């Protein structure tokens, strides 16, 4: 049984059914997510790119070293990092970029792009779950900055976010840095619009996960019998996505049967939004030291620099 099958069967077997959001990104899911990134309502990539383009110089001055390893967790195709790495390379004599991702094909794109756009740095892609691949470069004695861009920390509930930060700290030596992308709390309607768009793209993105389960796990989801619903709670800062069963039905997956009641939900995603107080609390609990933060002009998003 592979991880995908195991996680699907385990998640749907719970009293409150769930599916891990990391499985959204098959080839079709990745294509649909690019549509989401281009939506006017989806403010996140534009806000983060504003930070990268306007504040990379200031951040790079903080990271100035003779030698430096940049280790990016969940690196993707590298398009987001081109400008930052180009600027950083002017402040570091010997810069090595380690993009970590579970997708070998996406890392090939990353390597090709970075080599073409930032030729004066070394690049060493590592394929696999970053909890494991980080161990492969643990013994390097070069100062490092671990980079977790996007708003991926928001996919962890509080307890797992703390476990994640503690894991990052264990991979850092004294003086190393951790650069974390976070989506900030803001007007609730702006957040809700980003996750429940009027174009139906986010709904297709979520429903595509059922199609993937049908295709790869020989399941028989009736995709049209599910709807997408998103919510945001401004007090907790949690944006959540669900698939809602539109009728009483049964679904078979690899010999196991799962029953759905009308209006029963499958939780597919949580995206936590933060304020400075919450981030500082998490950092202190994990033992990281807050150094500085960098936000876009509307304070929608932030890169936060921590040190050990």
TrEMBL record:
Pfam families noted in UniProt: Methyltransf_33 (PF10017)
InterPro entries: EgtD, EgtD_Methyltrsf_superfamily, MeTrfase_dom, MeTrfase_EgtD-like, SAM-dependent_MTases_sf
Keyword Metal-binding: no
Stretches assigned to the Histidine-specific methyltransferase SAM-dependent domain: 4-307
Taxon lineage: Bacteria, Pseudomonadati, Bacteroidota, Cytophagia, Cytophagales
Superkingdom of origin: Bacteria
The protein's name: L-histidine N(Alpha)-methyltransferase
Xref: NCBIfam families: egtD_ergothio
Record's keyword terms, sorted: Methyltransferase, Transferase
Keyword Transferase: yes
């Amino acid at each position: 049984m592979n991880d995908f099958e195991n996680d699907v069967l385990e998640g749907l077997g719970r009293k409150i059914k769930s599916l891990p959001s990391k499985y959204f990104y098959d080839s079709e899911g990745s294509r649909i997510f690019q549509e989401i990134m281009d939506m006017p309502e989806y403010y996140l990539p534009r806000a983060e790119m504003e930070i990268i383009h306007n504040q990379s110089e200031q951040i790079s001055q903080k990271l100035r070293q003779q030698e430096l390893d940049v280790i990016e967790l969940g690196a993707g195709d590298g398009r987001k990092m081109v400008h930052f790495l180009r600027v950083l390379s002017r402040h570091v004599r010997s810069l090595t970029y380690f993009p970590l991702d579970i997708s070998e094909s996406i890392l090939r794109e990353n390597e090709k792009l970075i080599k073409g756009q930032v030729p004066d740095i070394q690049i060493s892609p590592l394929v696999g779950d970053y909890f494991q691949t980080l161990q492969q470069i643990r013994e390097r004695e070069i100062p490092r900055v671990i980079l977790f861009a996007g708003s991926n920390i928001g996919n962890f509930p509080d307890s797992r976010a703390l476990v994640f930060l503690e894991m990052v700290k264990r991979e850092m030596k004294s003086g190393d840095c951790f650069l974390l992308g976070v989506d900030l709390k803001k007007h609730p309607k702006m957040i809700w619009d980003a996750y429940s768009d009027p174009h139906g793209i986010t709904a297709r993105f979520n429903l595509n996960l059922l199609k993937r389960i049908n295709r790869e796990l020989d399941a028989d989801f009736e995709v049209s019998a599910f709807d997408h619903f998103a919510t945001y709670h401004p007090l907790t800062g949690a944006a959540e996505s669900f698939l809602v069963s539109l009728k009483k039905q049964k679904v078979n997956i690899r010999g196991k049967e799962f029953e759905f009641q009308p209006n029963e939900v499958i939780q597919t995603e949580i995206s936590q939004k933060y304020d400075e107080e919450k981030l500082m609390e998490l950092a202190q609990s994990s033992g990281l030291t807050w150094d500085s933060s960098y936000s876009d002009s509307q304070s929608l998003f932030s890169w936060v620099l921590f040190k050990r």
